[in-house]
Amino acid sequence: MATLYANPGTAVALQTAQTGNADSTNIADRATRREGGALVITSAIGATPTVTVNIQGSVDGSAWFNVPYALVATPRTFVLTALTITTAITTTYLLQELIFWRYLKVVMSANTNVTLTTTTYL
Questions:
Q1: Nearest to 41 by CA among 6, 69, 7, 65
Q2: The predicted structure's pLDDT at residue 9
Q3: Residue 40, pLDDT score
Q4: Which residues does 74 contact at the CB level (< 8 Å), separation at least 6?
Q5: Least buried of 38, 80, 83, 93, by fewest C-beta within 10 Å?
Q6: Are 1 and 50 in contact (CB under 8 A)?
Q7: First-to-final CA distance of the chain
Q8: How many secondary structure helices (H) and strands (E) does the chain include?
Q9: Around 96, how many Cα atoms within 13 Å sit in the side-chain half-sphere?
Q10: Which whole number is the average pLDDT over 20-24?
Q11: What is the pLDDT of residue 88?
Q12: Going by C-beta distance under 8 Å and a sequence separation of 6 or more, which residues neighbour residue 95?
């Protein structure tokens, strides 16, 4: 797993066509910035698809927790719950500003026939 520094306003690929039950291939490092950001998840599916995805942050790179995110349609309604993806779709999630985390990753579990590509903008 590689840790990639997230320059302000540039894309960091967390995973590219990743399958299975695993953490994203890469981790984004936003250093000391506390601005919000965005996470774009694109799914490709096979037969009977489903995957659970947690968006996680960490202060130190070892203890991880779910970070608040919102949908673009409801930009101030932040939640911490896991995502369940069952269709081929591209969705942008807004990451709440001022939440203290340095590192960002996504964690896939209960994956059946779903491939994810995830990019973050921090």
A1: 69
A2: 78
A3: 98
A4: none
A5: 80
A6: no
A7: 19
A8: 0, 9
A9: 18
A10: 97
A11: 98
A12: 36, 37, 38, 39, 55, 67, 68, 69, 104, 120, 122
Tokens at residue 74, please? 């409801």
Strands 64-66 and 26-29: unpaired
Please give the backbone phi and psi of residue 35, each rounded to the nearest 5 degrees, phi first. -70, 165
Could you tell me the CA-to-CA distances from 50 to 19, 20, 84, 97 in Å, in that order? 11, 11, 7, 29
Residue 36 or 87, more confident:
87
Residue 53 exposed, middle or buried by CB count within 10 Å (0-12, 13-18, 19+): buried
Tokens for 85, please give them. Answer: 């993806």
Alpha-carbon span 95 to 51, nearest angstrom: 20
If one counts every other C-beta atom within 10 angstroms of the C-beta of residue 90, the result is 9
107 touches 53 (CB < 8 A): yes
**Under a CB-based contact definition with an 8 Å cutoff, are residues 3 and 120 in contact?**
no
- Residue 62: partners with Cβ closer than 8 Å, 6 or more residues away: none
pLDDT digits (tens, 9 = 90+) for 26-53: 999 998 888 889 999 999 999 999 999 9
